Structure formats: C-alpha cells, structure tokens
Amino acid sequence: MNGPDLVVVAIDGPSGSGKSSVARAVASRLRYGYLDTGAMYRAATWWCLDQHVDLTDAEGVAAAARAMPLTIGTDPEAPGVEVGGTDISVPIRTTEISTQVSAVATNLEVRAELRRRQREIIGLVGRERGGVVAEGRDITTVVAPDSDVRILLYASEEARLARRSTELHGNASTANVEATRDQIVRRDRDDSTVSSFMQAAPGVTTIDTSDLTLQGSVEAVLDQIASDLGRIRD
Hints:
The chain is an alpha/beta fold. It is built from 10 helices and 8 strands. The strands form 2 sheets. It has a 5-stranded parallel β-sheet with strand order 2-6-1-7-8, with helices on both faces. Helix 1 (19-30) crosses helix 10 (214-229) and helix 3 packs parallel to helix 6. The longest helix has 22 residues, at 108-129. The protein is globular and about 50 Å long. The mean pLDDT is 89.
C-alpha cells in the first residue's frame, strides 16, 4: 500500500485489451493522474530514429534512451508527449513506430531506464493529484508491484484484433484485421520475452473485456478499485 496520500492503480494488458482508453477514462473519473508507459517506449523509438540510431545497436539504443529529453503529460484529458520540445503525440502512433517499437521495448537497459522514470512520475503525480492510474505491460509486476490496485485487462485475440483494426482502419473487415495482425500478435509475442502480461501474477485481478464496451470496461475497473480500497462507489 502507498498510504492515504497516494493511491496507485496499476493496469496491465496485451495490445487491444482496452487498457489505454480504460485507464484514461478511469483516471479522469477519479481525478487522478494518468501515465501511459507504452507511450514512453514509443517516444524512445521515435527518438532513436530521429537521432539515426540503429535499432539493432543495443548499446546505442540504451544510450539514446538515457539521454532522451522526454516530457510526458499526465493529465488524462490531455496526455501529450514531447521530446526536446517537439510534440510527438501523433507521430508515435504511426505504423512506422508500431512496427519497430518492440526492438526498443525488449532492450533490457532501456526498460531499466524507463522503469526508473516511470516510478518517479508515479510518485510525483500521485502525490500532486492524490492518485495515479499507470498502464502498460509490467506495472503490476515490476514498476509498481506494491500498487493499491493491480489489474490485468485481457481480451480474446479476436476481440483485440477487431478493436485495433477499427481504431487504425475504421472497421474490422477481414482484410483490415489481417493487416493489423502483425502489430498485435507479433508485438505481444516479442514483448512477452521481457515482461509477463498475458496472465495475471499472484494478487492481480483479471478483467476480461472481450464482450464489454468501453464504458462497461471502465465501470468494471471502477468497481474493482472501490472493492480493493474498501470504498463504496459514488
């Protein structure tokens, strides 16, 4: 537990499970800070490409990550991302970054650096706002294993592919789902070599969002938070 002045809600899950949208909505409802740790790995990937660092050069990538002048927004209503004063909130969501981010996210030295930054942000923002919702792949197990609330959002592969396809292409047609498959399945496979996010660790609650709407998923998470904190929901 983190004490009465700071509530930490940790949400992990695979691509397409809804964790980013759900975490933002939950943070907004609770008036907590919000931390998208995945955006930090995307930012590191963008920075390496911008600095012409070969992503196969593990030491070069790690050095670039340590030097990265990152500013990440923690307001759930406007979680922007800047590197060196440049707003990269949109560029880091492109297919170019999505298809290469695993090369950076699986670099153990990069993970160590970004986890250090993530813990600092969680502490600072949590104290400022009374709480923080942090989401990613290893928040419940490595970054903040002592979080007050630890949740793994999960969904079937079919549901996850349909969601990401709709997000990227506007619908979940067969062609669009197949075009999206590599980003979902390969990324999860690659990232699972350095973090465990497909099954809940001991003490972590699993919420299956396969058949839930976004609002239904948000309500399920809010119910779990209230339960874990011993509160009655408003």
